[in-house]
Amino acid sequence: MVDIDREKIESLKEYVQGVVDNGDGKALYLKYKEDIETVTPQECFEIFTSKLEKGYTPKDVLKILDKVINVFHKPLSNYSWKKPKEDSFLYYLIKENEALTKKLEEIKKIILNKEVEIKKDELLVRVKKLEEFNQHYLKKENILFPYLEKKMDRFHGLTIMWSLHDEARKNIKRVENLLESENMSVEEFNKEIGSLFFTLLGIVKKEKLILFPASMEVISDEEWEDMHAQSMDYGFPFIQRPALEKKEKLDLYGLEATKFKTNTGELNFEQMMLLLNALPVDLTFVDENNKVRFFTRPKDRIFPRSPAVIGRDVENCHPSESVDVVNKIIEAFKDGSKDSARFWIDLKGRKILIQYFALKNSKDEYKGVLEVSQDITGIRELEGERRLLEW
């Protein structure tokens, strides 16, 4: 574990606050030069997380993030850290970043050759391909981030990077929409594609300089192995998928011969899990302390979940922009003013229904919330009746 110099941290916090307050950049640098020139990845987490603790939102921090990291760039680039083992979780994240950079170089070549208008269709295909990189972000959000959050409070600042992921997703969609429009302005395209490159490559840089070195310093070899096994439920964008076989799904539940017995019947543990996973819905249970305690694994899960999220605070399972909604639902369930909430969204051409149900015991005490997500596209299309068997 890396020791943190508290006096140095306070000094660097003052520097960043000066940047937030639009202070003179050169004067600030000279005042805090000694500490800036020795800043470490772990210290960066301490600094940026402190902004969130003072009430700044992730979006507030993003306004000055790149400016600060550019100042920190030299010491972070020279920082010595143990590189990941080959064929490990982090090894593949790095390989994905290298492959993404190559994809962006191919797009950049078309733009520099001033072939945007004549290769508009090719550009659309290439930009749509970038959507696959979402799997990289999902692995970070659902596997890496939970492990780090459990290590120490400074990693709560990861919500800032999650906001960057969301910005990348929006950037890709904006460029796609431009390329799909009949009267695309090349000038507007250049502006949006520049923003997309800045966001995607910016995330790569922040991972390389801060996230990955800090992760290697706090996560054990055994934990990296667990993360790699969990990553088999996700894609590996732009690189060859590792040969490691996924564990049998039921093995992850630690099945035993335990009986579940009520006045409506009896099930052993395996039967219970087979039953729950056969339901055409995603189920996630969050307990009365707002901790994720359980999720099911249906054949086609709509929203990804990994064992790493077990014990994670539900706030950390959502992008910062939607946390207020999550908290509002939970508070209404706790005070008894509401017992359910539902939303529906369009996702990859499907209509998804998302419902939340308050869980109360026989004494009407709040015991948590059940999230149920269901693809209702086919249900909405039903007409008439079907009384005969049709496979």
TrEMBL record:
Q: Which organism is it from?
A: [Clostridium] ultunense Esp
Residue span, Hemerythrin-like domain: 92-214
Q: Does the keyword Coiled coil apply?
A: yes
Instruction: Name the UniProt key words of this record, in alphabetical order.
Output: Coiled coil
The record's GO CC annotations read:
plasma membrane
Q: What is this protein called?
A: Putative PAS/PAC sensor protein
Coiled coil: which residue ranges? 97-133, 165-192
Matches recorded under SUPFAM superfamilies:
4-helical cytokines
**What Pfam families is this protein classified in?**
Hemerythrin (PF01814), PAS_10 (PF13596)
